[in-house]
Amino acid sequence: MEELRKKARELLTSGAVKVIIGYGPGSGKRVRAVFVRKPEQADLLICDDRCLQNLAVYLTKPEVKALGKAAVVARLPTLRAILQLAAENQLTDGQVVALGISPEGKMTELSQFKAIEEFLAGFSFELSAEEKATLEKLDQMTPEQRWQFWQEQFAKCVRCYGCRASCPLCYCEKCLAECNQPQWIPAASHQIGNLDWHIIRAMHLANRCVNCGDCSRACPVGIPLHLLNQKLAEEVFKQFGARSGMKAAQEYALCNWKLEDRENFIK
Amino acid sequence: MSEFEPKIVAFVCNWCTYAGADLTGTSRIKYASNVRMIRLPCTGRIDFMLLLKAFEQGADGIIVSGCHPNDCHYTAGNFHARRRWMMFRSLLDFLGIDTRRIHFAWVSAAEGAKWAEFVNSVTDQVRKLGPNEQYQKLSQAGVE
Question: Does residue B127 register a pLDDT over 50?
């Protein structure tokens, strides 16, 4: 933590960056995102087990961009989100400094995409055994049981769009959910609109989601939304061999194709 | 009540399957009249939201059909569509939506007979499944 504060102070004093996006004290025992713009505020920064939010979500916001060049405290999923945003031409090289935090809590300054790629190469992108087991459990249910499970989950949805707001890859200025001519997704928090919304979000995040889990953490009613994204991420990897957030220049699997793509359901 | 007749919505591409279905007609081949065809420029144009809307509007079964691989009028629309359907279908399955109600095919402009056969087989399968209760219950949810 001291290392991080020292680095933040340095970066701000030298003028290398204008703002540090990190974690600071929130209400109660919680942490929240802070935007440190003066060297003397660097002591606000916290870095511990509570700091899970994917701060890359702020990098595409016009208000944050207007502050100037940013450094962002970044755990592995945040680093992947930065690369994925770069792959989607939302960030340019040198626009952001990542203060990479390894799982052990060690900080590394990564100012180029190449450095982030090299840093990430040392870590596995696979789902953890626990995550795999959860997906497996759902896969082994009958379709009726799965339908029951998801209907119970989606029935809780109040359509606050917290999942969208917390997601670093949901940066569209105009979302399909707000489109009302035609209205693709009924706006009321009714079963049909809820199902539509979660299907469309999962589809739009296929091969883009970096598995930070912020959608589920943001959800006020506790829908395990990350499972949908994990499922599609696994499918994309299995079928097309693609993983998101690996490189700053990589192709999007669903805007691409191979003659050899194989399925067994088209007659 | 008489036997259940399913409503099938077919999303087809302009260049192959629509022309193929036209050939079915001009060849005087009879096939199930349960199908309502919607012509789109290309399978690549068929957004998955269209399929969801069809279910919401009361479709019991859905057909998606277009040009065979390598035959796309726009070179690669069907290849893109194939990847999309691979993902979409596994997502529907993961959500427990009955994938036996969604059928995909490649039907060329010369395959009038294949179109008739395909529509008939889908209609038979969906007739056996009965009305699309999953979605019917959803649209009634919260309505007393």
Answer: yes
